[in-house]
Design brief:
By secondary structure, the protein is an alpha/beta fold. The chain folds into two domains: about 40 residues, no CATH class; about 150 residues, 3-Layer(aba) Sandwich (Rossmann fold). It is about 35% helix and about 15% strand. It contains eight helices and eight strands. The strands form two sheets. A six-stranded parallel sheet has the order 1-8-7-2-6-5, sandwiched between helices. β7, α7 and β8 form a beta-alpha-beta unit. The chain is elongated, with a radius of gyration of 21 Å.
Amino acid sequence: VLRDRLGVRCFLGLTATATLATAQDVAHHLGIPAEEGIAVRSAAVPPNLRLSVSMDRDRDQALVSLLQGEPFSCLDSIIVYCTRREETTRIAALIRTRLQGILLEEPSRTKEPGQDAAQRKKTKAKSGRRPLKWLADAYHAGLSAAERRRVQKAFMSGQLRLVVATVAFGMGLDKPDVRGVVHYNMPKNFESYVQEIGRAGRDGEPARCHLFLDPEVTLPLEILKAGGVP
């Protein structure tokens, strides 16, 4: 239609997550010659994302330990992805009950130029031990529109630290400072994995992504390689 009826001669397609096969298929359907079709491609995983994977017998405890330890304990905005809706509600409740009131050392602060002794003492006092606020909520398509808006608004504003969600959360999400993404369940394919971890670190700053492996599910080799598994 664009070419035949509207006379369009130039096409530009942009996406952050399409595989080479998908891009070639789109080019084919648009009638773009193969030698002209795919002009620019970048790395599938942004360089500012630090990926890790693990296989654990007790995944609930492993998730709690992951969030309780460094570096996730110091990250402000985290998304935990689950496959099933009921899983998001259970995991959000688990995080709220298991991690409330835990005391952790905040990251040490570097000495600022020009600070006198009194200022350094005040800074040190502020950086002492304090309760870690693990505010977590579930998000999935089965919630009411009002509840989904409430959770997303709280997360976007920084009032909500962690969202446990299905893939329904993140579609169109424009929050550049998501610092962590955790896959409690494995994504269905590498394309989905890249799309979901791509919601972290959009501001270019370092972000962490962790994937819990399921021993009964065969994982695409690309994900293992991206996570540093030989």
